[in-house]
Amino acid sequence: MTILEDVGAAIKARREEKGFTQGKLADAADVSRRHVAAVERGANVSLALLVRIAAALELHHLTVGSLTLDVPADGRGAAADITEAVDDLTEAHRRIGLSLARLEEMRKVRLRE
Q: Where are the domains of the chain?
């Protein structure tokens, strides 16, 4: 399972625990139901979207690979902050982040073997 699939499974479990449908969660997070479905199946989505969904599920922390984010009650403010921070990254920093995520994924695969 990939990092994003792990996150998606955790989001789905929390949604079901709270008795939310994908539509109800989408409304609470102010995103589309298709976005919720994409997150749950482990699609490559933005951190800002993940934070909005996590806030709607009343999660206080969101961990994606080795990155852990504190999730404020209002995910919209955090989503804007994350989007701004990511936009400020240089292409080199983005590549480094992607490389770190891939290394983390490879480490998890090795640990399972």
A: 3-112
